[in-house]
Amino acid sequence: MHPQTQKILGISFFKGGLGSACKLARDGGLVVAPSGPGMASDLPRTEGYAEALLRAEVSLLDSGLICLWSKLFESKSLVRVSGLVFLQEYLKKTDWNQEKALWVMPNQKESDSMLAWLVSKYGPHFDENSVYIAPNYPRSGNIEDKKLLQKIEQVDPSNIFIQIGGGVQERLGLFLQSKVNKGTSILCTGAALAFLSGEQVKIPMWADYLFIGWAFRCIANPRIFIPRYFKAFKLIYLLARYGSRLPKV
After folding, report:
1. Would you tell me how many other CB atoms lie within 10 Å of the CB of residue 93?
2. 228, 123 contact by CB (below 8 A)
3. What span, in angstroms and rounded, lies between the C-alpha atoms of 180 and 183?
């Protein structure tokens, strides 16, 4: 774990700048950007989730709620690097002629949409061979995927972008961490690519900076996201009770 970290709920979050985070991530290993709702739900009760965050080479502080809590109740300003901002910068700095990528996608529809956006943005460096459609992984416990490992051996990617749901992608990343070359970067950035590509509602950078990206998601799809973000308030209880300590299962 990089020494420049800030410990919250037992997780050592990277507290350097965006450029430093991208550079460190490109050295290889597991990179996670756990959301507030994901931490509230999965950190205390989903087997394997906490282990993934603890063992990641880079854990990015994505949650605006954690930052607001720290500022209001602990008078501390935390360094936040959201998964959205990180992925945008990481993609921009990637040498697509030299760095092969493998994209782990949730389904064929979203894969087609996000791949089309990547081609339009970065040129013809992406095709079906660089995509793996993920199966339905279990909601808890360890994840293993031998077919994915075979795909990785075939493609030999520099970067593996995992674009499936939070709580699952971190545990899949943990499985891959010990299976792939140490120089391979495993990037778990939630729905960031879906935001960038327009597959989900686009979040302006100013809204992400002000911690209100959640509001755009709730307006676009209230039936799904209002209950999800309402549950995120459990994170306040965890912060108040445990502070820098890992919550007990």
Report:
1. 12
2. no
3. 8
Q: How far apart are the first and last CA of the chain?
A: 23
The answer to whether position 249 is within a domain reads: no
Tell me the backbone φ, ψ of residue 228, rounded to 5 degrees: -65, -45
**CA 1 remoteness from chain centre:** 17
**Whole-angstrom distance, CA of residue 215 vs CA of residue 196:** 16
Predicted local confidence at residue 67, as pLDDT: 86
Write out pLDDT tens, residues 82-132: 898 999 999 999 999 999 999 999 999 999 999 999 999 998 788 888 999
Query: Whole-angstrom Cα distance, residue 35 to residue 61?
Result: 8
For tokens 């971190």, the residue is 170
The range of the structural domain enclosing residue 208 comes to: 5-242
Q: Are 132 and 103 in contact (CB under 8 A)?
A: yes
Show the tokens assigned to 2: 């990089």
